[in-house]
Design a protein that fits this description.
107 residues, mainly beta, 3-stranded mixed sheet, 8 strands, elongated
Length: 107
């Protein structure tokens, strides 16, 4: 809708809010997950990226959902705890990221 010169247009539309959380992930030594790490979940179409301080933004999180973080120096796995329904950017964690052993055939 484009109004005429000096005109006004009013538009109404529905707005929905998905649940989104900001989870904090820590490596086994207690340090935060470094920024820029790819985080995967097999049931999700796209990967997530870690931010500063181990922060990971997760849309539509599910309690018990497992994620894998992979980078050149290693890989680890963390599991989400309880999630409040309809929360927007609430903080979760910190979650420990447990190391994943690599098999010799996968190297």
């Amino acid at each position: 809708i484009v109004p005429r010169y000096k005109g006004v247009a009013i538009a109404a539309f529905d707005v929905s809010h998905d649940t989104q959380v900001l989870a904090t992930v820590r490596l086994p030594d207690g340090q935060p997950l470094p920024p820029g790490i790819d985080i995967w979940r097999s049931t999700r179409a796209a990967s997530l990226i870690s931010g500063y301080g181990g922060a990971v933004s997760i849309e539509r999180p599910q309690a018990g959902e497992q994620f894998e973080a992979r980078w050149r120096g290693g890989q680890c796995r963390f599991t989400l705890g309880p999630v409040l329904p309809k929360s927007i950017l609430s903080g979760l964690g910190p979650y420990p990221c447990e190391p994943i052993a690599t098999s010799p055939s996968s190297r």
